[in-house]
Amino acid sequence: MPAQRRVARRGLRRHDSILTAGNGGTKPVQALLTLYYNQGQGQYQMRQTLAPSGQMWVDVGDLIREHIPDVNGNFLPTGVTQGSYDLRELGTGIGTLYEGKVVYDKTYGEATYGCMVCCGYKLMELEYNPLGIPVTFQEDQSVLAWDTCSGSWVDITGDFYNTWSTTDPSIATVDASGTHTGVAPGSTITYTGPVDEQMQVKVGDCPIAPEGPDGNDNVFTASLSCSPSSVTRGSSVTCTATAQVPSGATPTFSN
Questions:
Q1: Residue 12 forms beta bridges with which residues?
Q2: Are residue 66 and residue 129 in the same domain, yes or no?
Q3: What is the tally of structural domains in the chain?
Q4: pLDDT (tens digit, 9 = 90+) per residue, 112-154?
Q5: How far, in Å, CA of 129 to CA of 139, rounded?
């Protein structure tokens, strides 16, 4: 089956279970295996970096019998006979992790299977839209995506390295990492990508598609004047911030 991103959950059966994972990609990936027991109240976690074509083999029986601690120093109780597991590929980008399982039972024989369930990105956008940039100053922009694996927004800016551009460099420029520099008052648009990402259409359906969110940039001039211009400790001063902004744009000041 094709490699998918990210999560697999299956029950652990009596008397021994061997869990496996492999990296079907061309770059190292980090795999996180979490075993759940005691009706999900207990957790046992293993983290391992897999090289391209590398594999991860976990004998659950050995973990219990040999009292092997997990990454947090926890142990699997000797009385555990059932539970579930979660296998996740950490990081961003297209998933390359795949999994399999062998169940051995003295009474009922053995069985093997494997089925990763993908959970890619659902939404993708720039963190600030519009992005306000004072003339001659620099402001950072980020690409965020809603990760259906974790149910949260994640920063995937690194996936878009060296794909940034603005429609009018005379207003604002942007470097390979998304840092913008205000050149002159006005408005422009920032484009990213396209970059191949794994997007979730529905549960279990995560095709790879080119993505590249865009957003507006507003460059303005700003000045700060204070009266009196100098004060002694404990005295008060009144400052006024003034900005010249493009039509329709609203600057935001904070102290």
A1: 83
A2: no
A3: 2
A4: 455 566 778 889 999 999 999 999 999 999 999 998 877 899 9
A5: 12
